[in-house]
Amino acid sequence: MGMPRNKLENSCCCRFFLFLLFFSINGGVLEAWHKGSVTRYYDFKVQSASITKLCKTSTIVTVNGMYPGPTIYAREDDTVVVEVSNLTPYNISIHLHGVRQRLTCWFDGPAYITQCPIQAGQSFKYRFTLLNQRGTLFWHAHISWLRATVHGPLIIYPKQGVGYPFQPPVEEHVIILGEYWLRDVQGLERHVKESGGGPPGSDAYTLNGLLGPLHNCSRDDIYTINVTKGKNYLLRIINAALNMEHFFMVANHTMTVVETDGEYTKPFKTTFLMLTPGQTYNVLIKADQSIGKYFMAMAPYMPAKNAPFLKKTSYGILRYASPTVKVDKLARKSHVKTSMTPLEPIIPNVNDTASVQAFSDQVKRLYPNHQWSPVDVPLRIDKTLFFTIGLNVFSCDSPDSDMLGESLRLQSTITDFPDKPEKMYDFVNGAPNNISVDTQPAIGTQVSILEHGWAVQVIFQDTGTVGTEKHPIHLHGFSFYLLGTGLGNYNSSTALLNLYDPPYRNTVGVPVGRWAVIRFRADNPGMWFMHCHLEVHTTWGLSMAFLVKNGKGKMQNLPPPPPDLPLC
To answer: CA 272 to CA 237: how far, in whole Å?
Structure first.
């Protein structure tokens, strides 16, 4: 993403590409978009705003002047219309992350994949229905690095009269994890492209846009949740960070995970979460500690070697309300003194991959017979894909991330993306670019074409060409079953796959030096982007796209694009 953008914007090839997509998969039967029983309308004005953090005032791009942006609230099966007006000089597009966009790929949002961006002074209405979806998702910009500040929650409640599959909390709180730069992120992206190197670490990590007390000029810039002892609370936690994975924990408190990526999970207890960019977790937390203050910590997880990043923790506060009892003045003063200093949590080491893997392995989908979460893992596979992913290097000394040795260039060509590498070797430990194995990447414009209804299995293999690293891979248009992960190179004869209660996700963190296997059913026609959710890796080309053909049955044909689809 972001390769020859000026060329694309100065021609009509993107518009041609979109219509080529439509005519290539549409069998001539035009169908209307899904409509929910309730339609909810939101007005997003993308505009610049001044913000003061770290002792400096900067100009950032926001929605409605808010950082993070406004929350979209809806219920399962509702239709949502979001009118986006671009009041900035930059191009913009909005992605509803995790929304499966049934028959509405035109509103999915990735620039130059399903739409041209919304240009300065123009607007576009995103229309979609939340069919069979509920839980915590989010929305964000999907062009350039504007996602750094252009993002916000998408909260989908169950249908009216339907409860949660757990004890209802007394309150719910949304916590968005993010990264903050003092420098302009557009300029930062240009620097990364021109230099060929990785980006510098951010200047701060944020909880709901607030930095916490450890940063300069941030003593009062603290996100605080007030709780009552003995009560249960639901925290909806979203990692909207640009390039960093993060731990989250609350001092002296155990969390119970009940949802990931908008899908209910079997409850399990944990003292910390690790979220890749693009992932969401819902957790229950009980206020069962002594009256006082407890830090909520956001700390970096960085398994890659020699990668620059901010080695600092940001804090919010979980504050217990004081009981309304009469005490003498001396006791009251003593209580104030002891409660002013929040307790700190135990934070995993920055590269504690073993603990991260143990945490991830606990995530299971809710019991198959449970009414909220029927499991329908495809057992007969129509298409198996083996994708190697990792960091690579061009001969011109420009670093490049690639998927299967192909670095995606966003142009109008449509051909077949390879199903597997040309050569199989020791992907994790093998020496790169030696005589027997050429790992030099190629610039490609291919997409992988899938027949409607195919059961698709994708094997992601991390590679050590430059160095092993964790890659959060996000698939647009679908959720998928994460059947398993394993150490080293994938071997079908020894791989253990969970076909009983695998988690249902939209973003998988392919582990360091490991493999991951997912399955999904290609029953949603359209063009669907798949990419690493580390923005720098998408910029370097770690991305591809699936083109899912129309089916023959009812509601299996992609409707034509809307008349107000933006032009390049």
So the answer is: 12
Nearest to 75 by CA among 34, 126, 37, 33: 37
**CA-CA distances (angstroms) from residue 507 to 312, 482, 534?**
25, 9, 11
User: Do 174 and 157 share a structural domain?
Assistant: no
Residue found under tokens 């964790």: 470
Residue-wise pLDDT for 216-235, tens only, equals: 999 899 999 999 999 999 99
CA–CA gap between residue 9 and residue 12 (Å, rounded) = 8
- In which residue are the tokens 């949590």 written? 345
- pTM metric for this prediction: 0.90
Distance between CA atoms of 316 and 174, rounded to whole angstroms? 13
Q: Report residue 353: phi and psi, to 5°.
A: -65, -35
Whether residue 84 sits in one domain with residue 142:
yes
Average model confidence (pLDDT) for the chain? 87
Q: In angstroms, rounded to a whole number, what is the distance separating the alpha carbons of residues 426 and 419?
A: 18
Instruction: Look at 324 and 97; give whichever has higher pLDDT.
Output: 97
Above 50 in pLDDT, residue 338? no
In a domain, 377, yes or no: no
| Residues 6 or more apart in contact with residue 350 via CB below 8 angstroms | 299, 300, 301, 302, 311
CB proximity list for 562: less than 8 A, separation 6 or greater: 106, 107, 125, 127
User: Do 175 and 201 reside in the same domain of the chain?
Assistant: yes
Q: Give the domain CATH number at 418.
A: 2.60.40.420
Distance from CA of residue 95 to its chain's centroid? Answer: 10
Cα 448 to Cα 34, 152, 460, 526, 547, distances in angstroms: 26, 31, 15, 12, 6
Residue 390 lies in a domain: yes
Rounded mean pLDDT, 231-240: 98
Alpha-carbon span 566 to 118, nearest angstrom: 6
